[in-house]
Hints:
Oligomer: single chain
Radius of gyration: 25 Å
Amino acid sequence: MNQPERFPIRVISCYFVGRSFRGLLGCAFGLILLLCPAVLCPAVLAQTPRSAEEFNNRGLDRQSQGDLDGAIADYTQALSLKDKPVVIATAYNNRANARLQNNDIDGAIADYGMAIGLQPNNFENFYNRGVALMAKQQYDAAIADFSKSLDLQPTFAQAYDNRGTAKRTKGDIDGAIADYQKAIEAYPKYYQAYYNLGAAQQEKGDTKAAIASYGSAVELSPKFADAYVNRGQARQLMGDLEGAISDYGKAIELKPDAGVYYARATARYARKDLEGAFQDYSKAIELNPTQAEAYANRAVIETLRGKKAEATRDFETAFKLQPGLRKEFEKFLERLKPERP
């Protein structure tokens, strides 16, 4: 009871959905690729599209407004028109991105494959298909695509990062750590890669290294709540309760969460701060009324304080939600039994 971290280490997985292109290729892109940034080139968007390029551009506008079906229709229209291979490959890539957003993963993989057929030396097409394969949990194929992307562009930080996550999912922790480190070498301000590196190091049992990696993540991104959560868990495992409580508090300021209140409660209980732990368990219950362990651990504190009625009520709620907890808390239940005359 009152164990730290009853929820898994949080890991960023497949944060980067493929890049979309407006007009002809040749525009620069940033290292941090989030959801389909539209890169403006000199092409003028016509009100009534006539060419493949114009349909592609209107598709991007529709996609940016959340009209995925309309965007897919425009990309499909672009593909029906004859144009240069680079334009058709662009439309396939963009339709694939829209399909991926629309949860048509198989359709996205097929379209990325068509784009690769037209542009076999385009590293982003392989990367994008790798992301879609990750969504299908086809990790070996995803690793192969990320590797091909890296063969074509050896400094592509996102490909190292996502390949690391695919390897980690398959249980290759050392391979994941190596890839996360390469991602950081390619882009030293890549705070997500530091975070993922910390998660892999923590899973390997190198808690001290994990704390340092999470520290780099929050130094680069001070509002990265999950990094504070994971560092708090690591610090608690190392016995640094003050540091853990501080990190959980920062995470709660940024993103209140029942699991984080629960984690901070366990750290406060370990410091014998019963009132602080009681308040945090109560807040965890307020945010998630089905969190059985929060009721049970709050009941422990109520038992220690002699509040038998409140403790009995919380234990009953906990065991109703999760009957298997009863055995774990048997010694406290003994304290609630009426004393024999």
